[in-house]
Amino acid sequence: MDLTPLRCLNNSISRLIHLVTCRISTAMPAEKDYINLVSSLKLVKPVLDDIANRKAPLDEALSKECDELDTAVNEAREFLEKWSPKTSKILCVLQSKPLVLKIQNSSVKLCGFCESSPNAQICIQESRNLKLGQLSEHIEEILKSQEDWEKNPCADHLTEIIESFSLRSSQELLNERIALEKEKQKAESSNIKSELDRISQILELISHIREFVEKNKSVNNVQIPSYFRCPLSLELMWDPVIVASGQTYERAHIQKWLDQGLVRCPKTNYELAHKNLIPNYTVKALIVNWCNENKVELSNNSDKVEDVFEARKVPEEGSVQSSPEHSYVHSRSESASSAVSSIDYASAAPEIGVSRMSVNYPFTPPNGGSPSLSGKFYNSSKTISRMLSFPSYSLHNELTSTPHVEKLVNGLRSLSTEVQTASAGELRFLAKYNIENRVIIGQCGAIAPLISLLHSDNELIQEHSVTALLNLSIDENIKSRIAEEGALEPLIHVLKTGNTGAKENAAAALFSISLLDDYRVKIGRSGAVNGLVDLLKTGTVRGKKDAATALFNLSIFHENKARIVQAGAVKYLVGLMEPCSEMVDKAVALLANLSTIVEGCSAIAREGGIPLLVEIVDMGSQRGKENAASILLQMCINNSKYCRSVLQEGAVPPLVALSQSGTPRAKEKAQQLLSHFRNQRESAVARGRS
């Protein structure tokens, strides 16, 4: 008789039992259901043996029940295999319930075909006694009752969810919300309305839980004002920053949000126009003052935010990509870049002060309130007017007017150095934070005179002008106009002749323009590479980061790789791979692009890069290991001499470890490299025998 359906079912049950026994985690909220389910399925196996021992053909109905149970078991197994601690706990329980109930019902129906068998009777009894999906039933009841909640949700319900899912801390709640927001994005893209409604309900529940958990939280028995709490975590902010929507968040929490690919403001739900994070110096100063008055120690809580996101990858050879997602992130306030790249710059550098052109004046809250800094002075620029304090807690430059900008543009054309300096400086700061101001400045014809001032002999005018253009280039339309109006040659002039700040911002501006596909080629052919490599050699840490950022983006275009190598960049990049350097990952990422050409591999070997690359594979960050393995693979494939050098540096043990525990791309590169070593060895043995 054909026992194929029985064998398939037996195999599927064994796989699920093995998976649950070996891999299920106590962190999985539905783990008890699956453990109980496995106990029940173990009783099904003797029933299947009884059916096989009948030595009679399987009838159609029995064969169908075997297939249905087999399908249900495999669906549950696939669900478990896809589960990870990063997924939503609440949604996991709700999605898991129909899977386990389906197996329970199918098991009972299948055993009904062998009612005379003692094994079948035991299995039916045990299956019916299982109370599966109880947690899910409680959640569904709570979600249903949530429709009647207004401002005072049931505390017992909230406590039950908190205890069931260990959602006691701000970080656990933040992780759950991020996981749900990602699922919501998937549901929106798939247009699954029922799933979208369910996720929205759970998000509303999480909002109630957050308020319930944080409602009575205090420091030193002092209640933390709501406007000093991060809207994402509800914790006291240590490093408040502003996003494109104007809302203020704790840097570590909103960065974690953005790094998960979430593009909407958590508070307003509006899509963010960009990912720039602007320091909110006003709120920070108010928090510091409040902490001082209440004897509260202000400490950085960002180290509590776990790194749960995967790095984006360096583009492979031949994949020319223009998206900012393949670029570095500047983590300073005046920056052209707002996207996360293959290298995580999110916490790479501290924010600089509000400006180099600042004055001190007393901070006065709006609406005639008393000074919030107790008579102390607040550091700000002339153009940053009174900061918004209550109740929206966001930092905005006051919106400028077209007549005012027109006067400043006329000032750029003045014969007076003082007037030019003041006008360029004010335009610089007007364009720094405010999106609307950038549009007005662009419409008033400021771009051409700003570009002309890049050739000014006055260093301050030059610096203000290049930084104004950098800030304006955040707007995609204005960026194109800056490029079209001939900014490349003047920017390269500043890169070679300006003061330190001007050179750094010229490099950042070139990077911004290089995000335009056509200009990545033009910049490479314009002579900018030599200036950027010089900055990589002689610049400050920030200047080197700016130079590496621009060179990385230029290196995506194949033609530019040889230019970068010929300009001598590899020597300085190898130097930046030293363990004491702040730029190891950034240097390795750029070298990964350069290693795709023969000249790049030769330069890396010549400059002594192989030992450092092996060390990074062994002890570097996940991104560093991934890119270092990619470089070593390119070198070994191109030249057997490099292969011997890599082996002599003891690369095999760290590569074996990386092939088992690295990122998916790192595992792939490590496995390819180890396979290449084996092939080389086998070829050598074969040649020796011949």
Automatic annotation (TrEMBL):
Catalytic activity: S-ubiquitinyl-[E2 ubiquitin-conjugating enzyme]-L-cysteine + [acceptor protein]-L-lysine = [E2 ubiquitin-conjugating enzyme]-L-cysteine + N(6)-ubiquitinyl-[acceptor protein]-L-lysine
EC number: 2.3.2.27
ARM repeats: 445-487, 527-569, 568-609
A single BP term in Gene Ontology: protein ubiquitination
Pfam families named in the record: Arm (PF00514), PUB2_N (PF25240), U-box (PF04564)
Pathway: Protein modification; protein ubiquitination
EC class: transferase
UniProt keyword Cytoplasm present: no
Physiological role: Functions as an E3 ubiquitin ligase.
Name of the molecule in the record: RING-type E3 ubiquitin transferase
Gene source species: Erythranthe guttata
Taxonomy of the source species: Eukaryota, Viridiplantae, Streptophyta, Embryophyta, Tracheophyta
